[in-house]
Structures are given as C-alpha cells and as structure tokens.
Model the fold of this input.
Amino acid sequence: MLAVEGLNISKSFKEIKALDNISFSVSRGEIFGIIGPDGAGKTSLFRILVSLLVPDQGSATVLGYDVVKDFREIRKKVGYMAGRFSLYKDLSVEENLNFYATVFGTRLDKNYDLIKDIYFQLEPFKKRLAGKLSGGMKQKLALSCALIHRPDLLILDEPTTGVDAVSRKEFWDLLKHIREEGITVMVSTPYMDEARLCDRVGLMQKGLFMSISKPSEIYKAFNKTLYEVSHSMGSYQLALNLRRFPWCRNAWMFGQKVHLSVDSEEGESLFQSYADENNLSYARIRAGIEDTFIELMK
Amino acid sequence: MPAVEDIIIVRDMVKKFGKFTANDHLTFSVRKGEIFGFLGANGAGKTTALRILCGLSYPTSGEIKIAGYNVYKDREKIKKTIGYMSQKFSLYENLTIAENIKFYAGIYGLRRKVIDARTSELLDKLGISSIRNRLIRDIPLGWKQKLAFSVAVFHNPSIVFLDEPTGGVDPITRRQFWEMINESAEQGITVFVTTHYMDEAEYCHRVSIMVDGRIAALDTPGKLKESFNSKDMNGVFLTLARSKRMNAV
Amino acid sequence: MKRFLGFVKKEFYHIIRDYRTLVILIGIPVAQILIFGFVVSNEIRNTKISILDNSHDEITKKITNKIISSGYFDLHSYLNSYDDIETAFRKGNIKEVIIFESGFSSRLTREGEASIRIIADASDANTGRLITNYTQGIIMNFLKDLVPPGIEIPFTIDSRPRMYFNQDLKGVYMFVPGTMAMILILICALMTSISITRENELGTMEALLVSPLKPVHIILGKVTPYVLLSFIDGLIILLLGYFVFGLPFHGSLALLLSEMTLYVILSLSLGIFISTVAQSQPVAMIMSMLMLMLPTLLLSGFIFPIENMPLLLQGLSMIMPARWFIIILKNIMLMGTGILFVWKETLILLGMTLFFMILSIKRFKVRLE
Done:
C-alpha cells in the first residue's frame, strides 16, 4: 500500500528547473529520506506533495488523494513541518500547540500519547515564548505541532538543518518512535550521515533522484574502486598530489584521509605502485553515502 | 625554532546579557596560519564569542587581542585587518559577481588597479570569468559560497572568520571550499571557522568545543578522538555535549 | 467554528503581546485629537485687528464692540485713514482690518444697504479665511438681531463662510469626524495588511494553508480582533471629543455605532485587499499610507473643503470612503438626522465593502504561487 506516489513530476520556476521528471513511491509506515544539497528540489517536491504548489507536468497522489484535485483532503491528513518557521514566535510553547490542535479540530490531550516523548522535554518550558527557545527546542516544538492531529503522513522539510549533532540525534530517535505508531514519514536533510537512519533513501541533486535504495545498499550504485589513503602530509596536500595522476578519477578529503576512486584495473595497479613507492597507507573500502553521492553527481 | 605567534589571544572572556552568561571565562589562543575549528551546540555561546572577536560587540570583561589589536580600543583597526563570511553569504543578490567584488574590496580600501587585477585573477582561478557580469541570485549555491569566501579574503586579511560557511551545499562543493580554506592557510591567513558538520572538524588543525558558555575541550582532532575514545569527531561531540545536557535549553 | 475561534484567539495574542504597536494604536487617536484640539488651533483666539471706522456712529460702535468682546479678536488700533492700513499690517502684526464706510447707520436704515470691508492677512490661507468667516459670522449675528428681515448687507469679500451648526463656531466639529475617519481607515487597513503579509513572510502561512482552515477562516480570523480594536479607538475619539472638547451629540448613538462598524469593515476589506497585492510588509505599509491615508487626509474634505477643489480631484474624492463617512458622521452628530438622510452615503459604503470583500476572497491564494 503506497502512502505517496509521484509520476513524472516536473516543476520550473521561471528558467530554473526545480524538478526534472521525477518518479518515486513511498510505502506506508516507512521512513523515506531525501538527501541532497540546497537547490536539489527537496522543498519544491514537498510543497507539491502537501498541495502548496502544483506540478507543471506529472502527477502525485498522497494517501490515495490527488495533490491537485483533492488538496482539501490531503490538508486534513498530512502533518507538515516546513523548516522551523511554522512557529509563532510571540506565542508560548503551550499556546502554539493549542493553536495547531484547534486548527486541526483536536485537543492537546487527545493525541497526547503520540507526542508525549517529545512533549516531556518541552514541558518545563511550556510557558516560554517560542521565539526564545533554542534551535533544538524549536525543532521539537514544530514536530509536536505537526503531529498533534495524528496525521497518516508526516512531511518534514529539513528539520535538522543548522541544529547541533546532539539535538539531531534526538530528533531521529523521535522519528523512529513515530514510525512505530504507523505513521509514514518523509524527511529531507542535507546531512548525509542521517541517511543511515531511514528505511529508504533518495539521493537528490538538481531536480533528479540519482538513486533510491535502502541505506545499506546505496554503495551498490558506486561501481568504481574506492581506496582510503592517508599520509602524514595531511589530506589536503595528499588529495592535490593524487589528482595530478591520470588514474585518479576522484580524490577528495574525508577527514584526515583521502578517498580515492579509480576506474580501471590498470589504474588500480598504477596507484598501488605509486602508493608503495611513496609510503602512503591505503586500503580498499566500500563506498559510503557521500562517496556514492559524489560519484553520482558527476 | 621561533614560536609561531598567537594571532588571537583570549583570556577570561566573559559576555553577559542581563543575568544570562553567554560566555563564561573563555581562555584560548589561535596561532597564525592555523585552521581553528570553533564548535558547540546551538545556544552554547559560539556566535556570541565570534561576534566579539570580529569586533561586532563588546565583551563584558576579559582580555582579547586580535592581530595585536585590543578589542576594546581598536575595533576599527581590527575590522580592517580581518575578513568575515557568514552562512547567509553576505553577497548582494541583485549585483553581479564583479560588482560584489568591487564593492567589498572598496570597503577595505583597495585601489582600483589592484581590485581589477585581483578580480581577473580570482575569476580565472574559479573558472567563472565568463559569467563575471551575472547576478549573484542567478548563480548556483556552491559557486556563491566559494565566491563569498574569496571575497572575504580578497584583501589579504590576517584572519578570516567563517560562521557556518558550508550550510546546505553538496559534498563536492564542501570539499572544494575546504580546499580553498587550506590554500589560504598555507598563504598565512589564519582561519577561524564554526561548523555543524562534525566531519569538517577533522580538517582543522585544532578544535575547541563549547558547552554552556565554556570551552569544554580544545586540542587537535586526533588527540580529542583519543581522549574520548571515539572514532570520529561526532562521537567526541556527542559525549561532551550530552554530559552537560541537562542545563542546555 | 472552533477552528475559527482558535484562530481568532491566536490573533489576539499577537496584538496584545506586541506592546509597541498596541501603544501606537491606542495612542495615535488620543494624540491626534489632542493635537488638533489644543495645539493646532483651528480656532481663532486673540487675533489682533484694526478698525477704520469712517462713521463712528451707534451701529458701527455696537458692531465693533461685539467683535471685540467675542474673545476671538483683540483690538490693536483704530486707524485714521486708508493710508494707515498697509503700515498697520506690516508693523502692527494685525491679521485683519475692518472698514466701515462713512454714514453707515444712516445708509443702513434709509437704503437698507451699507458696506463693511474686511481685509484679512491671507499669508496663511486657512487662517485668513477663518478670520473673515468668524468676523462675518459675528456681524451676521448682530444684524439678524438688529435688522428687520429682508434687508441685506452686501459684503465686498468673496469668500465662502463655513457654516457651523451653532453660534460658537467651534473647530471641533470639523476635526473629530475627520480624525475618526482617518484613524480608523489607517488602523484597519494598515494593521490587517501587515498582519497578513507578515504571516507570509514568516513562513507560518505555509503551515496555515496546509491545514483544514479555509481562506475565509483565515481572513475573518485576522480581521476580527481589529474590528474590536477599531471600535475601541472610535469610542475613544468620540469620548474625547465629547468630554474634552464639548462636541455635542444630537443624533442616535446606535446609528452612529452601526455606521462606524460599517466603515471599519470597509477599511478592513481594503487592508485584506492590499495584502493580496503587496508582496511584503514594507510594501503593504507604504500602499496603505499612500493609497489610503494620504488621499484621505487630502481629498476627503477633512482639511480642505471639497467644493474648493478642481473638478478632477472632486471626482477622485468620490471614491474616498472617508469622504462619505465624514458626511454621515456630521449628519448624525451635528444635525441629529436619522438613516433617512444618510441612506445614500451608507449604501455607497456598503457597496464598497462588498466589492472589496469579494475581490479579496477571490484573490486570496490557496497555494503558494
């Protein structure tokens, strides 16, 4: 049973093509992550799914409803969190929650169990104005407001952007709990490491899905050989050095090491000789999400 | 061998907003040519400290010297000798690339000839000479960012302050950006950078982590990972930040 | 319904918590009334005049006395000849010279005609006119008592005196209705348009749209608190006018309040309409100022009489809601007339309201583009 289905969706803003003929689907009860940099089209896609924008071409159904024709139904059943800006800064935590509850025709206590894990962290600050909360707390409040009416589908647009690592981790723990309640979650993020936490991940760039797969299988889209290389000269110098060679397909800094991709067997042996001669430590590794993303970007 | 000089010296810096202490007796130094990572959770006091170092606000107390200048008396001199770039990029969307460069370079007092020469050099290097007359709002995010950095160091400042400069860009651009940072560091520019990407912390020579207004750790990434028994900086950060979690809002 | 009320409640929170704006919203009408009342004297007090009395007879003396004892005029000097007039203006700081022709009384009683020349210092056009008006008024009053009906005194000044519905010629009659019209349209249109565009700018409008709230809920919800606020403002203005400046009130309070409510709703519709056109708060603000406040100030008859305007502007004045509202207010407050006299103007206001309401609801975007 599909929660969301998009077919050949295209959307342009003046000359910029935000979405370029994309198709995808999301099953009920899964956490579907969209990973991609700014400008990839994540926000445009989400806005189409929640019926705030109309696709130029193609169609989409959300919970069985067409995003263009049945938008009123969708707006009752979807929880939408657009960044952190759907909070009223001059209203308190409590007042924001009550407001959204009322707007959706429910009350804070009716679906309390659903948000209780988040709410207990917010509760000590329930009288504080939303504008005076830290980034992490605003996230949690916005999530609660989106959940308050027990939607069937939760769409979160970059909820963890600009928030510190601790709050981000906590946020994802909350999402897992939400999924256990049977709510489907679509979430976008620019942080590659968060991909691991989804059921399926779509890598998005320039209005296209470069790949859609389970996190553990993303590496399969990487069909070159990948080495992790290090040397005392440091990753910056090392990457510059490696790039001078024709067998080097890509050499990028990854922390204090360099990830080098080579695209032929011949290249591999050439590299290995070079590495041995120059005392570089190296090891073959499986591609991670970032490696795959970089590779697919080309 | 002579000691490398400290270009930023901070001793017991305190910043209070009413009763709230945002910076609680910070003490640290940054060496010339170093890439110094300034990490911390939201609300830990990073931005406050950064603003003081840039000369954008006064500390409540403490001794702070930037490139030899006193932050209380010589704010204007400090501003002339540093560069700054924030996440919002600070380039004017409705001016062209060339116009932005000219504008900012002019603010720092560079002469016309110098500006023209350096502009051509820079645009060639970035490979964007052909679009020098395109408006900023019409160029992709990654380019904007690299350009913003170039503008920040255009006048060869002694220190450049970067406030979460790599938000939201693709992984290639991020690395290219850090390569530019490294290049500047090799030319002697000290780089003071804050970021939320823990893997970027590994690109720094030394890293400090702020928790609740204090510096909870300061060392090279390698040593920090060792002390906290973690395979990456993310783990270090989580351990540190979690232990003080209860007080953070 | 509950949704709607929840929305209205939120709007009230916004208004009440924005202390600065609240102070301004209540403070402006108070300040304006007080300024117009006390500082900007629309009234004439102790204006220095000189008199050239060529007759020195009983009637001229009586007229002179009446003028001087009115409290508006101070006699600076008696002039002896026409040559003194210019000097008197220049040196004596006088604003007006009144000239009685010789043989005034005899001419008046025998021929039924006599002339009084009034020369006013018109370097300030408004005050100049007011001074002559006041003078004429006083003279008229005198003559009414003195002269049997049918006898006229021709004046050689061609000016249109303003007719006030009482003997005291108070300026408050002019500026209270005008102030009310201006304040109300300003508050309603400005505040509503800003409130809506702000929601757009902050991004919270996105969240509101992706919810079961219908556009009409959102619009009405935004408008309702301002109806209340404007009502309060209107009352404050009326009360200040009545208690502080002695504004008389002849008509029906219920009718007045109903008309005020209608005007408020019209202004709010304008505000919503502006918000559907303006892309950002500053634009909304400027549109409200330029399109509403300024024209209202200049063209509604508040400060400058409509009859004196060139035809083009008179035409423009017809589409100013304030113009009709001022007429309604004056009719009700000063003349004590009922709905029968103001039905035309009321209908116009009603029509405008419906027009903008419908237009705004149609224009209100259900999506982001």
The mean pLDDT of chain C is 80.
